[in-house]
Amino acid sequence: MSDKVVGILGGGQLGRMLAASASLLGIKVVVLDVGHGPAKQIIHPSEPHLSHIDGSFTDPQKINELASKVDILTVEIEHVDANALQRVQDEHGTKLAIHPSPWTIRIIQDKFRQKELFLSRGLPISPFQAVDASADALRSAAQVLGLPLMLKSRTLAYDGRGNYVIRELDQIEDALAALANRPLYVEQWVPFVKEIAVMVVRTTQGKVVSYPVVETVHKDNICHLVFAPFRGANADANRRARETAEAAVSCLQGAGVFGVEMFLMQDGRIYINEIAPRPHNSGHYTIEACEASQYENHLRAILSLPLGSTSLKVPSAAMLNVIGASSSMTEITSLANTALSVPGASVHLYGKAECRKGRKMGHITVVGQSDAEVRDRLRPLLEALPSGTP
Ligand code: ATP
Ligand code: MG
Ligand code: MG
After folding, report:
1. Which of 112, 147, 163 to mutate to test the pocket of ligand 1 (most atoms within 8 A of CB)?
2. The ATP-grasp domain covers which part of the protein (predicted)?
């Protein structure tokens, strides 16, 4: 299929599912991460010189070591060292492809620059502004943008760690204490009715295709449930969401899949929240529910192979994240065991050595012939969630 070797920066669950797809396609993969985490566990080096690398995916030396073993570098996490990636690209020249491009990763890993780029291209972004880490700056931002005000770290954010909702001015000191020493900006509060997401695949030629719109349900800033396809009240919203997501990914460079998170307003307006330059939690459902999964299409895109269809192959699907409620691994396996007796449910456990509150330990995808059937099948799983699940 392709004799090119793919190197993945990061070896968590997204790397694991990429590696699983690669193994089906017979594509060789080398993973760079510390320890023997989720991705390394499921793909064994095919030859001794292609063994996985133990080290940080932000360590320039380790990135160089990975680059010397592979033809294509890709990421399962955007919090990598984009400058190191650019240097590696300059050193290796055309012998090495990096997808998405270091330029794309650099922009996306700074949420403020990401928003500036999309705004400058005429895409729908709700009001935001730069602030320095001072109470005065936040007070004047609140005067312009109103309350609640969403204070965000520009960098290194995930699962809402990096966000602080300022509901009242007297919370400003707490907000600053929580996000001290991080580069900050603020966003106007968006009173959305739904959160939706679209996975977009971009080829090495810059062509973009999208997956169906899904509804994402967050609890405490962490994605909890995904429903596919999204059946909004506004019939036109699906088309506009896909067009917006495709237009946003068209502004970027390099190949692969991108997860586009959006807010849908009561009046049908759509705002882009943020983009991930990699497979995304809201696209896990594609493994069981679409003709080609986001993981397979990521590989096909970066290897310049023909893309697989992004269409649903089932009428309805849902994905439940399995998130640690405590350090108890038994709670996780017990939920997974419940899923074994649910028709249409597929269990994914990520092989993480330890469970922690708020940690993504796995997910369960449920497919069915109708939304009603999927919701019926989901019910026993929701009832079996450990108490204290975030
Ligand atoms: P992820 O794990 O998706 O990378 P993150 O840490 O980057 O998360 P965001 O996506 O910026 O965080 O925000 C997390 C959640 O907070 C959103 O999914 C949404 O529910 C809420 N949120 C973010 N920005 C706003 C806003 N401006 N107004 C209202 N709610 C918001
Ligand atoms: Mg994010
Ligand atoms: Mg997000």
Report:
1. 163
2. 115-303
Give the distance (Å) from ligand 2 centre to CA of residue 243.
21
Nearest CA owner, ligand 1 atom 18: 221
Question: 3-state secondary structure string, the chain?
Answer: CCCCEEEEECCCHHHHHHHHHHHHHCCEEEEEECCCCHHHHHCCCCCHHHCCEECCCCCHHHHHHHHHHCCEEEECCCCCCHHHHHHHHHHHHHHCEEECCHHHHHHHCCHHHHHHHHHHCCCCCCCEEECCCCHHHHHHHHHHHCCCEEEEECCCCECCECEEEECCHHHHHHHHHHCCCCCEEEEECCCCCEEEEEEEEECCCCCEEECCCEEEEEECCEEEEEEECCCCCCCCHHHHHHHHHHHHHHCCCCCEEEEEEEEECCCCCEEEEEEECCCCHHHCCHHHHECCCHHHHHHHHHCCCCCCCCCECCCEEEEEEEECCCCCHHHHHHHHHHHHCCCCEEEEECCCCCCCCCCEEEEEEEEECCHHHHHHHHHHHHHCCCCCCC
> What ipTM is given for this predicted complex?
0.99
Q: Atom 15, ligand 1: which residue's CA is nearest? A: 221
Structure confidence at residue 233 (pLDDT): 67
